[in-house]
Amino acid sequence: MAVFKRLAIGCLCIWVSFSANAVQVTDELDIGGAVRVNYGWKDYANDSKLEFELFRVDVNYQDDGLFASAQYRWYEDMDVIHHAYAGYSFNEEQSIQIGVTQVPFGLLPYGAHSFWFSANYYLGFEDDYDAGIHWKYDDKTWRLDLAYFFNDEYADGARYDRYSFDVAITDESPYEESGQLNARIERNLTTENTKHKIGASLQYSQLDYLPTTDTQVAGEDTDGYAASFHWQVDWAKWQGQFQYMYYEYDMPDSNRIALSAFAFPFEIASSADVLTLNVSRSIDVDWGPITNLNCYNDFSQVFASGEGLEDSIQNVTGCAITAGKFYSYVDWIAGNNMWFINGPGVGISNGPTEWSSRLNINIGLYF
């Protein structure tokens, strides 16, 4: 059975998720993992299928200020690192971690409620993991993050088998990440019934030019930057998320740049504005084994302009279902000119665009 890749073009999947507690080997060490299967349907192709997707292993350690965490994933056609870092907590507020760790940018830990994340994920600005050093301060009122990443998690832009979306080396766009600075600030405001998280993020990236053939014209190293404002509000059982982001890569002779993940390279607009608007509602129920529904609508739009560029839109409507140790998603994903929903990339256009949609239901086993 061919494994489902989140971003495999033209796949619409059901992924089911079963949860169990990790094995506590000692008081300091926990080992766990997950096994997932998928079924998918889409309105633009006739290839629905139920298939095995993933096996993963998680290791977590904590003792006397020291901590470490790692996750490795096996798909049928590839195996990849998700994260792997070690760190030290100086006190309750301050810590530092070194290794393949999450990039502190935008809404954290995720800027969406669904399995499919937001458009920011496919641009490399959500749930991204790179190799570097990350300092964090969090006193429950203010959170400050400062990080420097030496390169992507493999230090190899020509490797397309990866979980995180990173700048990729292709014949048309031979660049890879070679240094990145991130700064993030967030303020927590709490009233009697409402919690706000208001923050801003900055990112500066350096890119190396690495031609793939002798016939390519000599190029130059370049850079890029991104900035975002983000706000999350929790009231009763409602949650709202808002984020505005602008990013720009200084491409000398093109308004596109290549990224890759899940074994596929693709192109995105080299600069764009991105708007994210999400809302969710948690509902406690007593339907036999089902105890909670978290229903949501996650919307994001990439605003791109220029020759060969066009807006990309993604909207996900669905519910996450808790039933004992089972945790399932039922999602309807609609997109226009959007990667993995019948689009050529993100923010680019290779011809007329149209709306496409896919159904996603997911179930998995976490142990």
Structure description:
- This protein has 367 residues and is mostly beta strands.
- The protein is built from 1 helix and 21 strands.
- The strands form 2 sheets. A 16-stranded antiparallel barrel has the order 2-3-4-5-6-7-8-10-11-12-13-16-17-18-19-21.
- The relative contact order is 0.17.
- 1% of the residues lie in helices and 60% in strands.
Helices and strands in order:
Elements: E1 23-24, E2 29-42, E3 49-63, E4 66-74, E5 79-89, E6 94-102, H1 119-122, E7 129-138, E8 142-152, E9 166-167, E10 175-190, E11 194-209, E12 222-235, E13 238-249, E14 256-261, E15 264-269, E16 271-287, E17 290-303, E18 312-323, E19 326-336, E20 345-346, E21 355-366
Parallel strand pairs: 15-20
Antiparallel strand pairs: 1-2, 2-3, 2-21, 3-4, 4-5, 5-6, 6-7, 7-8, 8-10, 9-14, 10-11, 11-12, 12-13, 13-16, 14-15, 16-17, 17-18, 18-19, 19-21
Mean pLDDT: 90
Largest sheet: 16 strands, antiparallel, barrel
Note the gap between the termini: 23 Å
Strand percentage: over 45%
- Rg on CA atoms, Å: 20 Å
**DSSP helix count?**
1
Number of strands: 21
In short:
By secondary structure, this protein is an all-beta fold. 1% of the residues lie in helices and 60% in strands.
List the main descriptive attributes of the protein structure presented here.
367 residues, mainly beta, 16-stranded antiparallel barrel, four-stranded mixed β-sheet, disordered N terminus
